[in-house]
Design goal:
There is one protein chain. By secondary structure, the chain is of the alpha/beta class. It has one domain: 3-Layer(aba) Sandwich (Rossmann fold). Strands 3-2-1-4-5-7-6 form a 7-stranded mixed β-sheet, sandwiched between helices.
């Protein structure tokens, strides 16, 4: 357990100490995500709360890292400690759910998506982001590479309507294979 807390502390320090240019660039990534939502949104794996700070509506963060939860609370955000599987919320609680750079860290993606769909209201929006090739290789904690076909399969399995799947900020071609910050983004609607 001590080793896990030390790792969580190191990850918090990494996120909290990014320079202003990095945070500015990241704000463009987050603003693109926020435009898909209205109403109450759950940010699963909220990190230091970038989405919570930029989203105009009601938002709740959830993270497994106690240092990140404490940071978000200190910034005035609503955040709780918890896992992506076994979400501590009632069914049909949120108008939207964001899972940005979360699913690639998990062994049982299907179970997590099932629980996310459970807390999402009918007609609610789920936005998922996952790294492309270079980003996947960039982080040794990534365990499962998800591609467009995988995201489409998740949508079919959980009866989600695919509104859009797109690369951000660049097309998928060779840039997605070379630049670690390129993401694949999927926007789903719960039927």
């Amino acid at each position: 357990m001590h080793r896990a807390l030390d790792s969580q502390s190191s990850y918090y320090a990494y996120l909290a100490k990014r320079n202003k240019l990095s945070l500015l660039v990241r704000s463009f990534f987050v603003k693109d995500l926020a435009r898909h939502f209205s109403g109450s949104v759950l940010d699963v794996g909220c990190g230091i709360g970038e989405f919570l700070g930029l989203y105009d509506g009601k938002s709740v963060g959830l993270d497994l890292n106690p240092y990140l939860v404490k940071h978000c609370a200190g910034q005035g955000g609503t955040c709780c400690l918890g896992l992506a599987q076994g979400l501590p919320f009632q069914s049909d609680s949120f108008d939207g759910v964001l899972a940005s750079n979360v699913l690639e860290h998990l062994d049982d993606v299907e179970a997590v998506v099932a629980d996310i769909v459970r807390v999402l209201k009918a007609g609610g929006v789920l936005v998922v982001t996952v790294p492309m090739d270079a980003g996947f290789r960039h982080d040794p904690t990534h365990v499962r590479m998800l591609r467009k076909a995988d995201l489409q399969a998740l949508a079919r399995a959980w009866r989600l309507e695919v509104k859009r799947i797109y690369a951000y900020p660049f097309c998928m071609g060779w840039l997605g294979k070379c630049l670690y910050f390129c993401e694949l983004r999927a926007v789903f609607v719960k039927k």
